[in-house]
Structure formats: C-alpha cells, structure tokens
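Private note to self, pasted from the team thread so I don't lose it. Backbone tokens:
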C-alpha cells in the first residue's frame, strides 16, 4: 500500500508531478502542460497514485494535486480554477448551480468505493460495537454540550468523558456521515476536534484512551496497529445480521451499511480542450481498479467501471448521483444504469 504522511498531504497543494501524455485522445504534451486537481483528502491517495504511475508516460505534463476538502475543491472547480475535482460525496445541487452560473459543465466519474470507519483507541476495551441509533444520538446537533460521557451512550460503559474527533465541515466524509447517520447533511454537533487532514484525526484518537471518531476506511487500514475498528449495526437484516465491520468485502458487497459509499472525480468540460487532461483521465479510468486497491480502497465491480468509461467516452455531463437523491445504500451500477 502506498503511504501518505501529514507532510505529504500538506505539501500536496503545491505538488508538481511531471507526468506524460500518451494514450487515448491526446496529442504529445506541450512543455509545462498542467492538469490541476484539488478536493477530497479521501480521494487524494488514489489521484496521487495515478499521477505517479502516469509520470512515465508524459514527463512534460505536470499534475498539481491539492487537498482542500470536497467542499473546498468544488468551490475552486466551480470557480474555473481546476481541471478535476476529487470528491468523497456527490456534488450538491447548490454546487451544481454555482458551476452553472460560472458556465462550468462537468462529467461525473465514480472511481472506487470507500467505507467510513468508526474507530476508538485500542484501550477502549468496553466498545464492542455501536448501533446507528447510538451514533445518531452521539453526533446529532442536540447532543452538543449534553452527551459528554461514555455512560450516556450505553448503560454499563465508563462514567468518563468521551473525546470526539472527525473531519471538518468542508469534507465529503463529514457530509456523507451526517446524512447516513443523523439523516441530514451537516446536521452534527460542533464540539469535537475537527481537521480536513485525516492523519490529524488518526493521531488524536491513537493517543487518547477516551477518543472516538470517524474517517475513510483506507486511513484505518494504514493505521490499524494503533486504532480499534468499531462494527456498526444498522438493524436491517437485509444488510446482514448484527454488527458489521468495514472491510474490502463488506464495503464491496454492500453489507456494511449505511457507511459504504462511492468516491468520485469530476472533470470540467472546459478542460477537455486540453489534450493532457483527456489523456490523464483516460489513464485514470484504465488504472483505477488496480491503483485504488493498491492504496487501500475498494475497486468498483467490472460492470460499474464499464458504465463509468461509457459515460466518460460519451462526454455525458451532469450528475446522476445528485439528481438521484440519497446515495446511501445505493450501488453505482443501479444509479448509472437507470440514468435517463
């Protein structure tokens, strides 16, 4: 698995990777040609891996990769600053309107699956699982300043403070978690330690016996020796009986619910005049299954990738995921195959 450190992610906003132009749809790269990418810290490792692999094919192209969070990336994307936005949730209707107002059309491309991991410190021996109802009670806005001790989550747990960690409000992981658990995007208590850098969240939980938090499953896999994974019970027999922990298998087969999700890249239609962007996206989709697995994510099923490549080749603009309502518990194949 490719590792990414806090220093690497912090530097990513200024990272210039020389990469190459060969492949479908592109003429040879011009000297200093640039492909600009920004957005989700969750999707960053996949995009970084793709850019590194692409380097051998186009040494004259530079790919810049920033980590502003999904929301921050869409702000730049809809402002015309980016070729590609990395996103750990679908684009929102309000962001679609922002892009429309700026004359930005886009192609929406799911590239992998990820699960959101709920984790505690390994010394939190009392935590064997959590239900969706318990997580909702803990993270809802009404819990702020009121639910502050482990004993308030479940009878018999320690009468000690609970210290919460999670992503910032510009994070797509934050958006998806609040929608899936609380029921409304951005409906969350605010009295927790937040960061757009998942490594900061990992560090906080791994050094605090009373900590609990959430972030992308791939980050848990990188840090599993210093964190404890918490199985989640959604009380729905059709998703599998009892508490289920995220794994490559349970995320891929849809039994880890409601915290399994697709992750995306969004390509600006204006950027398609740049053959280096076209060649980079061609390469990205061709290598997504292999490289997403190498950096700890879950590849989409082959039939899903076929639909994604078809969407890209047809230059189909707009969002099927935003217009399709909630994506919680819905497969990529089902949404894309049903697109009108």
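Design output:
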């Amino acid at each position: 698995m490719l590792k990414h450190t806090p220093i690497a992610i912090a530097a990513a906003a200024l990272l210039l990777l020389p990469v190459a132009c060969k492949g479908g749809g592109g003429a040879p790269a011009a000297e200093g040609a640039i492909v600009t990418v920004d957005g989700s810290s969750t999707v960053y490792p996949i995009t970084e891996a793709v850019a590194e692999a692409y380097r051998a094919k186009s040494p004259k192209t530079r790919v810049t990769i920033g980590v502003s969070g999904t929301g921050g990336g869409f702000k730049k994307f809809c402002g015309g600053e980016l070729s590609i936005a990395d996103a750990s949730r679908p684009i929102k209707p309000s962001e679609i309107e922002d892009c429309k107002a700026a004359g930005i059309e886009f192609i929406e491309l799911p590239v992998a699956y990820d699960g959101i991991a709920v984790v505690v410190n390994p010394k939190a021996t009392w935590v064997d699982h959590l239900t969706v109802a318990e997580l909702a009670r803990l993270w809802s806005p009404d819990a702020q300043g009121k639910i502050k001790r482990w004993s308030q989550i479940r009878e018999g747990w320690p009468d000690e403070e609970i210290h919460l960690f999670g992503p910032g409000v510009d994070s797509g992981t934050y958006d998806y978690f609040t929608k899936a658990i609380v029921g409304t995007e951005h409906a969350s208590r605010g009295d927790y330690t937040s960061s757009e850098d998942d490594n900061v969240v990992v560090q906080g939980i791994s050094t605090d016996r009373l900590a609990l938090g959430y972030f992308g499953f791939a980050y848990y896999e990188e840090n599993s020796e210093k964190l404890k994974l918490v199985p989640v019970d959604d009380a729905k027999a059709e998703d599998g009986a009892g508490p289920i922990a995220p794994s490559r298998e349970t995320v891929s087969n849809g039994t880890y619910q409601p915290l399994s999700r697709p992750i995306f890249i969004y390509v600006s239609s204006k950027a398609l005049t740049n053959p280096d962007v076209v060649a980079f996206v061609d390469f990205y989709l061709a290598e997504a299954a292999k490289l997403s697995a190498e950096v700890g994510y879950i590849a989409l099923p082959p039939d899903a990738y076929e639909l994604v490549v078809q969407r890209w080749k047809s230059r189909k603009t707009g969002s099927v995921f935003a217009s399709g309502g909630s994506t919680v518990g819905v497969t990529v194949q089902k949404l894309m195959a049903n697109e009108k």
